[in-house]
Amino acid sequence: MSIRQFPTLYFDNGGGKRDRVWTARVRRETDGTAVAEITHGVEGGTLQTATRTYRRGKNAGRKNATDAHDQAVAETLRRWLDKKEKEGYRERDGGTAVAMDTRQPILPMLAKTYQKGKKCGIVFPCLVQPKIDGVRCLFRREEDGRIVGRSRTGGEFFTLATIAEALEPLFREHPSAVLDGEIYSSEMPFEELAGLVKKKKDFEDDPRLGALEYHVFDLVDATTPFHERIERLCGMIRGIGGQIRMVETREVESETDAMGYFRGLIEAGYEGLILRNREGRYAVNKRGSDLQKYKEFEEEEFVVVGFREAEGLDAGTVIWVCRTADGQEFAVRPRGSREQRAEWLRDAAAMVGRPLTVIFQEKTEKGVPRFPVGKAIREDGA
């Protein structure tokens, strides 16, 4: 039996009242089922616990199939995120201790969007890195001794054995290290890359696995400023080679310098720029001002609420229907090959309810993305 414990969330009731508390965990049973437990109430008072038993997963026989435990974790994580993003619940300072437990997946620090010309928390001089259009992945040695790569939501990647093997010397010398980076390949588009990385079966003989690289850009350590973390990380990565790459980090004196570097990155084929405060700490599972991204287009996740078949030359391929937080629906043509978009149309019903990353130029007055393009649908919650 294993247990996935989510960090406890708190809601400020104001007026000197005690905070509301909400926590969740998922327990894998020996019979293959899973039990999700939600505990909530007023801190210091009587708490209520509700349970739900998952007896099977979803989409059996499909490439996005889940077992009972996967499904329980995905749905419970969605509820946990909704508490934070929609209802105003927060983790308390120091509340990341559970996430750092070697028995529990670590969820990465996320970037805010940098707004040029505005005060947004970046202090110059700062450190900058290229923004890589890959799949976010944290590597560490887990309690059972395996070196495991996990997604931004804690799901295990099963296709990265050669990368894990290349990292063995690093974790032998630094057994408690946690690496943050992205899986990337210049030889395939993002959709193909993401689909390959997230495979759970029938991938062992896929020749494309040899083209995957792990681009490392940070070290998970909440107590050390970024400029010290990156210096330490460079020393750890030095000499490994192979499929492991260290992301370039350089210092810029001003926003003007940062934008000059950004233009060079775009010409080189990168999708944008990452800005980091020199003294910034790593905030596990939080989106903070010490880490910001800059692109010339916007990117946001929207839930897929429906689909239809495209018309004209694109007939036989899918068009997703998404919904904004305010209830406005809009159509999104996904990028990708015609074959891929046709496959999505055949599997479209299984994708409803999943988050779609949409890139767009700006939003209309009603908050609807203008010129939206579907970048990636999170088929397994990763």
CATH topology of the largest domain, by name, is D-amino Acid Aminotransferase, Chain A, domain 1
Number of domains: 3
Question: What is the straight-line distance between the termini?
Answer: 23 Å
CATH class of the largest domain, named: Alpha Beta
Helix content: 10-25%
> What's the total helix number?
8
Q: Which terms would index this structure?
A:
382 residues; alpha+beta; D-amino Acid Aminotransferase, Chain A, domain 1; OB fold (Dihydrolipoamide Acetyltransferase, E2P); 3 domains; five-stranded antiparallel sheet; five-stranded mixed sheet; 8 helices; 20% helix; globular
Brief characterization of the structure:
The protein contains eight helices and 22 strands.
Describe what you observe in this structure:
There is one protein chain. This protein is of the alpha+beta class. It has three domains: 2-85, no CATH class; 110-294, 2-Layer Sandwich (D-amino Acid Aminotransferase, Chain A, domain 1), CATH 3.30.470; 298-377, Nucleic acid-binding proteins (OB fold (Dihydrolipoamide Acetyltransferase, E2P)). The chain has eight helices and 22 strands. The longest helix has 18 residues, at 68-85.
Write the layout of secondary structure elements.
Layout: E1 2-5, E2 9-11, E3 20-28, E4 34-42, E5 48-54, H1 68-85, E6 110-113, E7 126-131, E8 135-141, E9 147-150, H2 161-166, H3 168-173, E10 178-184, H4 190-197, E11 213-219, H5 226-237, E12 244-246, E13 250-252, H6 255-267, E14 272-276, E15 287-294, E16 298-309, E17 318-323, E18 329-334, H7 338-346, H8 348-351, E19 355-360, E20 362-363, E21 369-370, E22 373-377
Parallel strand pairs: 6-15, 11-12, 18-22
Antiparallel strand pairs: 1-3, 2-3, 3-4, 4-5, 7-13, 7-14, 8-9, 8-10, 10-11, 14-15, 16-17, 16-19, 17-18, 19-22, 20-21
